[in-house]
Structure formats: C-alpha cells, structure tokens
Design a protein that fits this description.
348 residues, 3 strands, 2% strand
Length: 348
Amino acid sequence: MDYSPGLRGVVAGETEISTVGMEGTSLRYRGYDAIELTSSHTYSDVASLIIDDKLDGSSYKKSFASHYMSLLEDSELIELINRLKSQQHPMDVLRTAISYIGEADESNKLDAASKVTAIACLTIASYNQEPSDKLDQDFVVASSLLPNTSSLQQLEALDDMLILYAEHGFNASTFAARVTASTRSDLTSAIVSGVGTLKGELHGGANEAAVELINTFNTPADASKGVYQHLEEKKKIMGFGHGVYKIQDPRSPVVKKWVEVLSTTDESINRFEIAKTIDSIMDSEKKLFPNVDFYGGLLLSELGFAVDVFTPIFVAGRSVGWSAHYFEQRSQDILIRPAAKYTGIEER
C-alpha cells in the first residue's frame, strides 16, 4: 500500500458537510459559499445548515439560549470552572467543562450540538471582566462570548469569525472526533477528542502564536528587522500557508477587513501595520499567504479577548462542525482503523 506522511492527500472517508480547497481557494458548507454566508446569514443559521442541512437558525438560537441560560444557573458547574481557572490553561478548563455534560441526548441533533456550544461559550465568557448574560436576538452565540456592553460591529465581527471557524473538512481535530465516533462512542467523547487535538499549536494554537509574534514588535520597522532575522535563523512563522489551500485562504480577507474596521486607536492601528508588514515579507520572501489564524488572532485581540482564550473560541465555532461529523460518522457506522508502515527491526 502507498504511504503518505500525515495522510496528506489520502481519502479517509466520505462527507456531505463541506468542501475545502476546491479550485485552490474555495470553502463551501453543504454547497453554500462560506464567505458569502458571512455577509448574508448568522452563525446560528450556519450551525443549523451544517448540522441539519437547514439554513434557518431559529431552532438553533432557541435551543442555544435555553442551554446557555440554564448553565449560568448551574452552581456546581460555575464552581468547577472557577476552581480550575486558577490551575489550568483555558483549553484544559474547557475540556473538563465539556466532559461535565456527560452523554448528551442525541435524539435531537441541533439540541445536542447547541448544548456543547453553550458550555464552551459559558466557559470562555467566565474569563471576561464584565458579564455576558444578555443574549442578542440575532447574534445569540457571539453575544454569549462578549460582554453585555459590546457594540453591534463587535458582535458582527465575532459572528463572522465563528462562521469561518465552524467547519473545515477532515482537519486534524475533526478527524479525531470522527475516529471517536466510529467506535460508537458518544457525542461528548467525540467533542473532547476534538478539543484535545485542537489544542496543539500546529492546529488551533496557531492564532495564539501569531498574535504573540505581532506583540513582540513595537513598530513596523522592528517587525521587518525581526521577521528577516527569524527567516535567516529558519524559525517557523506561525499563521502562514495552509495544507489544503494553495493560492490563498479565502477566510483571511474577511477577518483582515474586520481588523481594519475595529482598529481605531493609535495602538491598534500600529499593530495592524505591524501585521501587514509581516504579511508582506512572508509573501515576498516565502510566497506564503496568511491563513485564518494570522489575522484571526489579531481580531480576537481587538475584541478584547486574552491570548489564552483564542483557541477556546475556535472550539466554540468548530463545535458544530465536530457535531455534524460525529452524526455523519455514526450514520455510516464504519470503524476507522488505518494500517501502519512498520520501520523497525524485521526479526530478532
């Protein structure tokens, strides 16, 4: 059998949920262009589409709001989250909080998936200095993550970010969730598998690394000098290139536009200029384009989130994608069990 390191290019299953990188640049959710969806629909609509193939988020919004407000009243859960926050990284706190659900009732796919998203959002919101207990009727999920005082522009920006995070084919975390689902395990276990996989910096953690790099420079001139030095030392610059997209990541321009819109102070404008400087150098020197993580980290920073909750926000968005793949894999009912290429001693 042919061997492909990292399973690159290997078809490992069938899906009706999304297509990634067709013609080098596109991303479609059940046939709909994901970029166009950011300008015409909300995350709740997209969540319903991805899970239940219906581009109408009314049922999802109602279910999410019900779960979120109920979880806010769960004193044991709140105590658990607050206790863990002083000891562990937010991704570890989030993983444990999701496990708290136990086996979800999977008879209603939208309801089960929205509960996973709700507990992820509640965990993230617990890190805000201001309360996040008033849900906007349109941007219900985004408003659960941002403080009550957030502007409409901030809600729209985060909602678009969640849409772009919602689904992305057989990426590492989604594939991990499908492997778990293939054993006939439960939804919560599959989501926890996804969280553990997304934690790595080569996957979800790239947005943290990207904004940390931007924050090391004081001016665009500093960034230019520093990036060239990184390249000379052959250090990896996180947030550039993609394993599937070959021309550009179609999600990046949407996120970059929102960073420009929200960058209104001298400090934020300077950081945006630093980011664009790094982007330009990577293009000219390495012919690499920014992926969604590069400007994504900067956008989340402009929205007021601390760096260590960036990846948990990725979880909040991707939870619907993981859920959809879980249900699809369960319906196919095929155990995922690849072969391995043995490279050790033949016989002793």
